[in-house]
Amino acid sequence: MVLSKTQILVLLSSVTLLSFLMAIYYMGYTTPSIKKGEDPIDGPKEILTESIVIAQARNLLDSSQHVWLAELENQKSGASTIDQEAEVLKLLSRTWFEYGNLIVSGYYAQKAAELLQTSQAWSIAGTTYGAAFGSSQQVDEKKLAARKAIAALEKAQELEPDTLQHTLNIGLMYLELSTVDATVMPMKGVRILQQLDKDHPNNVMINMTLGRLSATRSGDLAKAKPRFEKVISIADTENVSSEILLEAHYFLIECYKNEKHDNKVLYHFDKAILLSVENQQLQQQMIAAKQKYLEKD
Q1: Block mean pLDDT (10 aa), the chain, length 297
Q2: What is the residue range of 136's domain?
Q3: I want to staple 290 with a disulfide (CB 3.0 to 4.6 A). Which of 71, 208, 253, 269 is the partner?
Q4: Are residues 163 and 295 in the same domain?
């Protein structure tokens, strides 16, 4: 069976990992659920807080889960050093992640970051809240998760201002927040990304991000194409991972399909097939997709 475009993208994303960028990619790019200036029809009557989320989450646990969490809380209370307490908080975060409540997971990751005060810890907290945004179906939860993600990522940025990833993540998270919060304009995130692009025009991570946004959010393949072409050209002089190149070639297949440029489509199919050699399932699907394209007429 030949996978659909969406299924191939999912397979591609499984081999493409760029910390929070891939968390955002995993979430998918959303469109606004409410219009600017409007309130959600089924919006909450009170502002959602983490305390409310935690209380609601605890009500859904079984007895064994309650026992394990109580044990971890006891370990936290008995910790004699900051590092020991932080390790228990990390374990609480992982536990809640496994239980499927990513907002609560983010809460404990944030508590660990407050103790450790490292950019990595704050980035992990932001990443976790970002994943919570993507996994939730409730507007109020999405707002809470996005705002918490931005606050954590800004802490990471303060501690490590020269790391572009933190700034990139903040811009992406503002874009996501604007889809569920009418008080936040999309241009806030766009301006952050535009400034990054201006300051670092040949950065692979930034070009891939902007290319993905154009291709998957606005559907503007003509605008996305030069971004992916630039990534491939950068690989001539710099080390670019095969996963990123594979994704760039895949998107260019779609860009050139849109332009009905058969030779370019087949060229990028061949490149993608070579780059997917370590993922046999994906490679076979690429080969099948190429064959289907050849038979289209």
Answers
A1: 47 39 38 42 60 94 96 96 97 97 97 97 97 95 97 98 95 96 94 96 95 93 97 95 96 96 96 94 95 88
A2: 31-200
A3: 269
A4: no
